[in-house]
């Protein structure tokens, strides 16, 4: 399972990187989204996979999955959601104000 | 805090009061309020001269930063006394001169005197400091004060250019000197100069010795305008003339000489020291005198003359350093060179100060300093003319003026080199007297040219801006005093020989003296038919011939290559540096986000990939968690959806594919036993997709279809690299568990300590509640930020596309 996860994480990072390097704002925001998915799965995988029951004590299991990375990922999901939505609205405003979502056209203009 | 500390600090304290006095007495020329200070300093220094000339030094200590060995240590011996007297004495005269030179209605006088006092205090600090760090601090303050004074007329472009040039060059040297001082500290373990002198034999064998020597000399050479760093001095002539007279002839440019003399006990006896000091000195002497002849501006002639005379003194100090090798056998051959250096240093300050003041008077009374426009002023300005003749002939080295005496001693010193047989001098030594004579001929030519073309010949009233007449008496007193000193020392040299020069020489060559012993000097006017006298006669004969035929050969200077001057080199270097760095910046700061991201990702690939290749981790082949078929399937869907984001052409499909990736991730969270994560991920993904659609799908028609992403191989390769490295990294850390997880504690105590069974939630709100609090803050900030982005419209001149 770790091998599959490692490959999936690699794919997520690869596509995210590729998207970030493109010119359209929307694709760049999607790229950051994929990168955060990749990071979350990476956290999960490196902590060890399937080593017991979900960390709910009512389960009365002999072993539980590691709860700490889950707490970290939960925090991270919320933060990346906040950041993503902010970037999205920022991109939206940029698009509205400047009439383009092409990064190459968003350079500082000399006459301003 | 002692008397000697006060001498250094008094000028700095006085700067505070100048603006106050200026405000209180607006009608008073503020120079009159400044004048008592240098007089008082001069008198209090003179009161110590008895002590110093009987070889008792005055010293005082005050802690400043004791933990770093930096003390405010001041020390007055023969060398410091000579310099301190020059600084305060000529300072007094210059202040008096400036009162008449600068107009109180047109000039910003308070600024002028603040800068001048700043300089005076800094210069006193340089010559009285015993601590190297203190010396460096005052050294840079003189550079700063000189910068401010050169650019005194800030509205003139040439002033600003000259100030910048002198600042860059002297601060460059100052920094080098600072590094040299630190090396000395590393070797000797102390910043105290006297402490270092005591350790001189131990230091000389250190591998850092030569770097320290070169760095300290760089500082001395830039400050004292030695070739090739002399180029700042002629441009510094844009300063008001009192400044040129004070800083750029008598005091600041001698700080480098002071440093060389002060460091002689530490560095002397080394071939590098001898060749660098004597060699650069001699070349500067020749180059300065050669260049002075072609100048047409009075102050430019004097500037190059200063360069040349500083080279003369420097070369004498270099030759004098041989004394450490030879004079121990009580022959005292080379100590005469040090005496000549000290003597000429004093003489130069007197006659050059007078000549600058003469140039200022001529400028002030005629409106020009161009010798092509001047002439015939002798009968109109008889007093000025007399001073100029005294100063000019002393500079040329003619009897009965003091310049004659020191020039004879200079020749003696250069001839003595022939007797030395160290440092390859048996082959090269003959160059010393030859260069000395040639440079003296040029010196003779420009000195006479200066006097003759200004005061003799025909008056050209139509070319002058003002009707020339004699200067006011207050402006004449300072140069008269200096010219009298020239004559007085010329006739009675022993007047200063015992009281000033002997202690100074003892300070430069302390190791040659047995305790209680001191040098006996006797400077005589007539010392028989010696080789030196014949050399002087030859100089006068050839010089007179050249002066009389000046018009025929001076045009030869025009044939010199104009493109190869040092000023061009300096300007070119500055421009090249500016252009090169702006080109360099433009080359990599492209302004495109993609370029910067490529730098970041490339750096990531190189560093992480490089270190992975270096460590070569063993990738585990077995021991992985079991893998079910549906997990495979989910993985395929996830990868496919991710790839689809890139491949699809419409915006809508891309957003939906991104949503599919998110839902797959939450399914994985289910598989991986993380119910809370799965819940959150589902909700967040749903809201995110909705937001994406809100923002991008419902936009105006403008480019609704996104176009396919054009394939770019660079991007693709970088993406592959990043993905591969992350994959390898993930696999590399598998099975590496250097210690147990802390989570056992959370699982064991969640119920008993925190009263909850959902361990993840207990961690979030109890064990690690701070994270959650700040994460809430992040959400809040994002919400406020989004609100502000949508609502706030500042400026109002944005183009709205709605």
UniProtKB/TrEMBL annotation, chain A:
GO CC terms, sorted: plasma membrane
Keyword Transmembrane helix: yes
Transmembrane segments: 6-21, 28-49, 69-92
Main localization of the protein described in the UniProt heading: membrane
Membrane topology: Multi-pass membrane protein
Keywords: Cell membrane, Membrane, Transmembrane, Transmembrane helix
Localisation: Cell membrane
Family: Belongs to the CPA3 antiporters (TC 2.A.63) subunit C family.
Descriptive protein name: Na(+)/H(+) antiporter subunit C
Source species: Xylanibacillus composti
Lineage, top ranks: Bacteria, Bacillati, Bacillota, Bacilli, Bacillales
Gene name linked to the record: mrpC_2
TrEMBL record, chain B:
Keywords: Antiport, Cell membrane, Hydrogen ion transport, Ion transport, Membrane, Sodium, Sodium transport, Transmembrane, Transmembrane helix, Transport
Pfam families to which the protein is assigned, alphabetical: MbhD, MbhE, Proton_antipo_M, Proton_antipo_N
Domain NADH-Ubiquinone oxidoreductase (complex I) chain 5 N-terminal per the UniProt entry, residue ranges: 65-113
Positions of the MrpA C-terminal/MbhD domain: 636-701
Start and end residues of each MrpA C-terminal/MbhE domain: 715-791
Location of this chain's protein in the cell: Cell membrane; Membrane
Residue span(s) of domain NADH:quinone oxidoreductase/Mrp antiporter transmembrane: 129-417
Transmembrane segments: 6-25, 32-50, 70-100, 112-128, 134-154, 166-188, 208-233, 245-261, 273-290, 302-326, 332-362, 374-398, 430-452, 473-492, 533-554, 596-615, 627-647, 654-672, 678-699, 711-733, 772-790
Recorded superkingdom: Bacteria
Presence of the UniProt keyword Lipoprotein in the record: no
One GO molecular-function entry: antiporter activity
GO biological process, alphabetically ordered: proton transmembrane transport; sodium ion transport
UniProt topology in membrane: Multi-pass membrane protein
Family, per entry: Belongs to the CPA3 antiporters (TC 2.A.63) subunit A family.
Protein name: Na(+)/H(+) antiporter subunit A
High-level lineage: Bacteria, Bacillati, Bacillota, Bacilli, Bacillales
Gene name, Swiss-Prot/TrEMBL: mrpA
